[in-house]
Design goal:
The structure holds 2 protein chains of 2 kinds. The longest helix of chain A is centred in the last third of the chain and has 16 residues, at 215-230. Helices cover 34% and strands 32% of the residues of chain A. In chain A, the strands form 3 sheets. A 5-stranded mixed β-sheet of chain A has the order 4-1-5-12-6. In chain A, strands 9-8-10-7-11 form a 5-stranded mixed β-sheet. Chain A has a two-stranded antiparallel sheet with strand order 2-3. Chain A is an alpha/beta fold. In chain B, 44% of the residues lie in helices and 18% in strands. Chain B contains 14 helices and 12 strands. Among the domains of chain B are: 1-137 and 339-362, BirA Bifunctional Protein, domain 2, CATH 3.30.930.10; 159-232, no CATH class. The chains are: A alpha/beta, B alpha+beta. The interface between A and B is large, with 45 and 41 residues.
Chain lengths: 232, 362
């Protein structure tokens, strides 16, 4: 049997993952046409490359269908309860940096902290008859963060894309989203809350604690770990 | 492993006993309007309840407890006074602990009565104590009404008091508000700038979203106004902190709180009510001299109790949730009653945990 490595199938994340492994003596490549999600591995025998979307990696790791996977800390923590028990992080890969943050319109000069947000949400609910809406796709992480901070009178509304635009469109009053540079936020007239950092995330190589490891998989994993260790 | 049929039989037995105590049986739907629960509990309820949707009724939740539907049913067509009992499944979404069941039976007893709060509290507590008699349980009691009275009577602005009352059930935010109103926490740089500047501050930033500039300006004015008021006095703050830390048997707790009431006289009426309850419990044979009382008990349960609270815990099994718990929830009936309200007190039992503890003893 083979050791299965799940890697995001598209874009910069895939290229950077390939580069990262190449520097460590493992050559990953796509086989066949660009549309075909198949890959090849050189440098470690009995290892197989599985290409899938970054969002599916946590689920596949938790199900044990892949042994290793590359995806962000944010997705693992959002999708896997008690993630430490299901996966182990083998290496932070140094790219794909992104912070999950809370952002409000810049002109809210009265709101810079969670304390302010809570007070503003209370007044907003009284004035508008509904709770202050936060657009996000990270429901669990944001809810846990705000529960922990004791913020009330908000509601999460789902936004799977163009989240920063929801405020202008008045489908949300503020956002909780991933940002790497903050440029998109500024362009959309939004600012960060001072204490509104929900999570710091980067691309990480995870190992499934659930997957079955036979002799071949163990050997392949040890070879890979040696190569990774060598480069540290 | 406890058999499901055994749990159901025990639940039926308990319900019969509650009927014998004078309650009428109510049955509530499994699916509840999500909007009602979200308005009441906020987004936090999503972490605890399963949500489902259809195109006709929108979001609905699998009942996470009976309190809300029983109150709703009573408010629609209940006679007064009323005693209700029910037994049935509740559903709790589990995202952290795989050992906690996401579906279990609850048997409850609720009293809706205008007069004689102390008697009703004692009735409910002693009825539950009777059902769990013989099990190795520790009873905890408290009274959120005392803390609420303390906050309501603080010598500070109505706005500050309202902010504190809003977070009675969120101890952490309550703490940080208290620190701010007492001038203990440093003023954030952004706030200091805001307060030092005069006039409108909208500046060059674009106004976007449904929260308008007027609302921002109104809050800035409110903050400036608040800054003019002195912090909550040190003696009041220390007394409030001492009150929240009270944890003793009922007689000693009462004594401590009467001492605290020298600095917080506003809690005396609430303490009189505690005395009346203690007397009523004693009259029913409860060993109040050895009963635990914690002034902060019940603040984190998300049930929005606002008076007497109680719980029965397996002493040797700190991992288990309470086998029985309940309390007074007058304010909840006000919120759900659309103008109507009625004092209410009640509680629930977990027959599955009772059986589990009985088996462990064999």
């Amino acid at each position: 049997m083979t050791l299965k490595l799940g890697v995001p199938s598209k874009g910069r994340l895939m290229e950077k993952t390939f580069d990262w492994f190449a520097k460590r003596g493992v050559t990953l490549s796509r086989t066949g046409s660009d549309r075909e999600y198949a890959g090849a591995v050189e440098g470690v025998s009995n290892m197989e490359l599985v290409l899938l979307s970054a969002g599916e990696v946590p689920r596949e790791l938790a199900a044990g269908r892949i042994h290793l996977g590359v995806t962000g800390t944010d997705l693992v923590q959002e999708k896997l309860p008690r993630f430490e028990q299901q996966v182990e992080d083998l290496a932070e890969m140094g790219f794909g940096h992104a912070d999950l943050i809370l952002a409000v319109p810049q002109f809210w000069i009265d709101v810079d902290t969670l304390d302010d947000l809570d007070a503003a949400a209370s007044a907003f609910r009284a004035a508008h008859g509904h709770r202050l809406r936060i657009a996000t796709k990270y429901h669990r992480l944001v809810r846990e963060f705000l529960t922990d901070a004791g913020v009330a009178d908000y509601q999460l509304v789902d936004s799977q894309g163009a989240t920063e635009g929801t405020v202008k469109n008045e489908t949300a009053e503020m956002v909780a989203d991933i940002t790497s540079t903050g440029e998109t936020l500024r362009a959309n007239h939004l600012k960060l809350l001072n204490d509104g950092l929900v999570l710091k995330s980067q691309a990480t190589l995870w190992r499934s604690r659930v997957a079955k490891y036979g002799t071949d998989e163990k050997a392949a994993l040890n070879t890979l770990l040696d190569l990774l260790e060598h480069r540290k | 492993m406890t058999l499901r049929s055994d749990i159901q039989a025990r639940a039926a037995q308990l319900r019969v006993r509650f009927e014998a105590a004078g309650a009428q049986v109510v049955d509530t739907p499994l699916l509840q309007r999500a909007g009602t629960l979200l308005d009441l509990y906020g987004e936090d309820i999503r972490a605890r309840a399963y949500v489902t949707t259809d195109a006709l009724r929108g979001e609905q939740m699998l009942r996470p407890d009976f309190t809300v539907p029983v109150v709703e049913a009573h408010m629609r067509h209940g006679a007064e006074p009323a005693r209700y009992t029910y037994s049935g499944e509740v559903f709790r979404r589990q995202e952290i602990d795989p050992d906690r069941p996401n579906e279990y039976l609850q048997v409850g007893y609720e009293v809706f009565e205008r007069d004689g709060a102390a008697a009703a509290d004692a009735e409910v507590f002693s009825l539950f104590a009777l059902q769990v008699r013989g099990l190795p349980l520790r009873a905890a009691t408290g009274d959120i009404g005392i803390l609420m009275a303390a906050v309501e009577g603080l010598n500070t602005t109505e706005k500050r008091k309202a902010a504190l009352m809003r977070h009675i059930w969120r101890p952490r935010r309550f703490r940080s508000l208290l620190d701010r109103f007492a001038g203990r926490s440093p003023v954030p740089e952004s706030r200091r700038k805001l307060l030092e500047t005069e006039g409108d501050l909208t500046g060059s930033a674009v106004e976007i979203g449904k929260r308008r500039a007027a609302e921002v300006q109104a809050r800035v004015e409110a903050l400036r106004e608040d800054a003019k008021h002195p912090p909550i006095a040190e003696n009041e703050l220390l007394a409030l902190e001492a009150l929240m830390a009270v944890r003793e048997t009922v007689p000693f707790a009462t004594e401590q709180m009467r001492d605290i009431a020298v600095d917080l006289p506003q809690i005396n009426p609430a303490l009189d009510r505690l005395d009346a309850r203690t007397a009523a419990m004693k009259a029913r044979g409860v060993d109040v001299d050895n009963l635990d009382f914690e002034a902060s008990y019940g603040r984190t349960s998300m049930e929005y109790y606002d008076g007497f609270v109680f719980g029965f815990y397996a002493e040797a099994r700190p991992d288990l949730p309470p086998v029985a718990s309940g309390g007074r929830y007058d304010a909840l009936t006000r919120q759900l009653g659309e103008g109507e309200e009625i004092p209410a007190v009640g509680g629930v039992l977990r027959p599955d945990l009772m059986l589990q503890l009985e088996e462990a003893r064999k």
